[in-house]
Amino acid sequence: MTEAVTGITPESESPSITAGKAGPATAFTFGDPTPVLESRGLLDYLGCYNNGRYYEPPVCLSGLSRTTRSNPFLHSGLVFKRNMLMSTFVPHPLLDRETFGQLALDYLIFGMGYLERQATPSGCTSKLLPQMAQYMRRGIEPGEFFQVRGYQVEHAFMPGSVYQLREPDTDQEIYGVPEWLPTMHSALLNESATLFRRKYYNNGSHAGFILYLTDAQAEGDDIEALRESLRQARGPGNFRNLFVHSPNGKKDGLQLIPVSEVAAKDEFTGIKRVTRDDILASLRVPPQLLGIVPQNAGGFGSIRDAAAVWAHMELAPLQSRLAMVNEWVGEQVVTFEPFTIAGVAQ
User: Fold this and answer.
1) Which residue of 20, 129, 158, 176 has the fewest CB atoms within a 10 Å radius of its CB?
2) Could you write out the three-class secondary structure of 310-330?
3) Domain span at 18
4) Max CA separation in the chain (angstroms)
5) Which pLDDT score, from 0 to 100, does residue 13 have?
6) pTM of the model
7) What's the confidence (pLDDT) of residue 28?
8) What is the rounded end-to-end Cα distance, in angstroms, of the chain?
9) How many domains does the chain have?
10) Distance from CA of residue 153 to its chain's centroid?
């Protein structure tokens, strides 16, 4: 979208305008969000970049971690899934509940999780330790894994001592990609709407205005005093009254023109609701299980039925995916109890 603004320039760059001479025109262009289907770059053709020692992830893992904290629905849905997995997990001498919780959370957020096998001198497994997926990198040689922070290899694991549980991807077979990745735009749009609303209220419940002064009686000192008063009316000075005295001034010599007053008030609730539905659809979690209040008289239906259906169609497949660790360990270290809730069984 391209808009032209006439006679408006930043305060620090405003040129002097003489009477009877038209002011300069300034035009600027707004950039549009990049569509997914048109965002092919060099890395899309290379896949996971080989830096000579390990492969780089296809997406920024630290960015994924920050994105989950930008939206309450996304973060709450992921933690809800982790909690449900931990509530049905049966601890094992090799894998305690805390270690499994880290594995499940990494798998849900990053689409991959890692376990390190600690072996006894005789070669038997003594303990399974979690390794944070955000800092793990897969080596070029089979079975090699590295822990990397700040693009520096901090630790190289013994070949074959690390298991990678990953969500399959259609573009590469090195790293996993989370299922909620397509809803990232909705999560960030939800955050942007909230941040805009905060700025809107901090700015005195308006989106800004233009103070249009054409009174010939105003002099330089008067204009500077008026400008300083407006500066002090921001932030903690919101809602203060401003007195302006202009002897022999005209009625329309000082005008207050709101900017985007209507746009600041509309669609906030609609954006929050639509982006919330996108996120819940990506996570496949019923809204009543996250404590969302229904907006209609009928509500969301029975929460017991929703929990039972969700456990059968979403929790059970997740448990099956995490149980793949057993094939690597060679024994049943990841097992689950049946999901039950107040008389409703899975």
Assistant:
1) 20
2) HHHHHHHHHHHHHCCHHHHHC
3) 2-32+209-258
4) 99
5) 46
6) 0.73
7) 53
8) 51
9) 2
10) 27
